[in-house]
Design goal:
By secondary structure, this protein is mainly α. 51% of the residues lie in helices and 5% in strands. It has 7 helices and 2 strands.
C-alpha cells in the first residue's frame, strides 16, 4: 500500500510529543524538508503518496529529533531575517533576539549614513565574537554599502 504525506505528519506529531514543546510545528517542518515542499505547497500535497527516499529522510530526521537533537540541526538550516542559514552542531543556533540585535545594528548604520557625503568613507560595522555569523551576514546582505569594503577582522 501507499502512505500519504498526511500520515507522516500525524506519525511525527505523535512521536515528537515527548521531546518537543511544539510537536505539530516540528512535525510539519520535518515533513516539509523530507518532501521538498515549502509550507504553502505541502497543504496541497498531503494526500500524495510518500516516496521511499522521502520515507528514509523522514525516519532519520524524526529519530534525531526524538533523541533530543534541536530541530534546527535536524533540518540543517534555519531562517534568520532575510537569510536561510545552514547549521550543524559546530555553530550555535541564532536566537530570535539576535534578529532584534541585527535589526538595531542595521538601523544604526542607516542613521549613520543618512545625509553623508557619498564620497566619504562609509561607517564600518564589526561583528566581534561571531558565532554563526548571522549578524554580519545580515548586515552584508541588507545594508547597501556593507559588502563593498569588507575587511576581515581577526
Amino acid at each position: 500500500g501507499t502512505i500519504p504525506l498526511r500520515a507522516l505528519l500525524a506519525e511525527a506529531t505523535e512521536r515528537l510529543r515527548s521531546v518537543s514543546d511544539a510537536p505539530e510545528l516540528d512535525a510539519r517542518r520535518i515533513v516539509e524538508r523530507a518532501s521538498g515542499h515549502d509550507a504553502a505547497e505541502l497543504r496541497f500535497e498531503l494526500d500524495r503518496p510518500v516516496t521511499q527516499r522521502e520515507m528514509v529522510h523522514f525516519d532519520r530526521m524524526v529519530e534525531r529529533r526524538t533523541a533530543g537533537e534541536p530541530l534546527q540541526y535536524v533540518l540543517g538550516s534555519w531562517g534568520f531575517r532575510t537569510l536561510d542559514l545552514f547549521l550543524d552542531r559546530r555553530v550555535l543556533i541564532p536566537r530570535p533576539e539576535t534578529e532584534v540585535v541585527a535589526g538595531v545594528a542595521l538601523e544604526e548604520l542607516r542613521r549613520a549614513t543618512e545625509g553623508r557625503d557619498p564620497r566619504a568613507d562609509p561607517p564600518r560595522a564589526v561583528d566581534l565574537g561571531t558565532g554563526s555569523g548571522a549578524i554580519a551576514l545580515s548586515i552584508a546582505v541588507e545594508h547597501a554599502h556593507a559588502g563593498q569594503r569588507a575587511v576581515p577582522f581577526s
